Every structure is written in C-alpha cells, then in structure tokens.
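#onboarding

Welcome to the new folks! Below is a worked example of what a typical request in this channel looks like: someone posts a single protein sequence, and someone else replies with the predicted structure as tokens. Don't worry about understanding the tokens yet, we'll cover that in week two.

Example request:
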Amino acid sequence: PFPQVLLERRSWRRFGRRALTLNELSTVLGLTWGTQQWMHLRPELACPLKTSPSGGASHSLEVYVVARRVRDLTAGVYRYAPDAHGLVRIGDVWPHGALRESLGGQEWACEAGAIFFMTAVFPRMQWKYKFARAYRAVLLEAGHFCQTFCLVSTWMNLAPFCTAALADTLIERHLRIDGIAESVIYAMGIGPRPARAAWAPWPDHAPLPERSAPAHQRR
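Example response:
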C-alpha cells in the first residue's frame, strides 16, 4: 500500500552482497526517469510526460548510471535514454578511488550496486524561462525526481540513498559533459537490503538510533 511505502522510506548506507538484477535497474529507471507519454502541444512542440513534475514540462534532467554489480549488465558508465527506455554505454568501470572522491569521500556510497548521477541540461529550461529563477526550477525538479526514485526503490524493497556531496568537475569529466550547458546536480544509489536489517542508516554495524513516536501518536 502506498502509505506503507511512504512510511518505510529511509536513507540506507549499507547494502546486501547480492548483485542487483537487470529487471530491478530497469524498473527503477523506467518508473523514475522514463518517458511515459508524449504531449503534443503544436506540430513542432512535444513535451514528455513522466512520473514527476517539471516546470513547463521542460524536463531538463538526464541521468547517468554507474553500474557496479548488476546481473547481466557489464560494469561501466551508461546514459539512460528515457524515450527508448535503454542504456547507452559511455565509459568503462569507474575506478573505486575516483568514485569515492566524486562522492565526497563517502566510502559506503561506493558499495551500492548502481549509482545514479542526475544532470541538468539548462537550455531546456532557459528557452522558456528567460530569468535567473529558472535555475531554482531545475533544483526543484531534481528534488521531485529524487523522491520518486527513493519511493520506487522502497516499494521494490531495495536500499536507496541520495547525496549532494559531489565533486562536480571530476564527475562531469567522467560523464563527458561540459559543466556549463549540462552540469551534475544530484547523486543517488541503490543496492539490495542487507540481510536481517530493517534499516541501515550508518555505514558500519552500529545499532539503530533510538526513535520515539510524535505527539499526535501519543494522544
């Protein structure tokens, strides 16, 4: 049930040992970033409709996948093609040390089965909104898509995380983007949940933090 998915959404920092399946990766990509329909506004203008909102249906975002442990998928760097629902390989295995540096030194993040880098192609927003606030719309869009990613992953009983601790220039070099017209905005990842864990908020094996009920549940 959808309320249960909302209530179970947490950030995970430890992952199980099995590889992700290609179907798991495909489902997360398709339900988060995939084009569901095209909306034809006039003969020369069609806008994609996705599961998250975008200012003016401009959909400025792209997503790149660093596949580390995905069954039946060669490890490497891929760009997701949302209309075709396919992956285009753009690079080889991302070295572990460089990946850790790209993610702000967060060693645990490198243990995810797949890591996703969301980028923004700014001209997609700027042609319609010709003012500085358009940049805020891009950031809001990234937040919408990240929450969808987290909820889809939770619904699939996977362990998601998201982070803004990014080494932009290093990431953009690996993704082969210029950092100007297209720039990295957000990172997230998934892995299988570790065995016998209801939640793993810490990268080590420390016990879960203490939690208590809010006031409205204690009435």
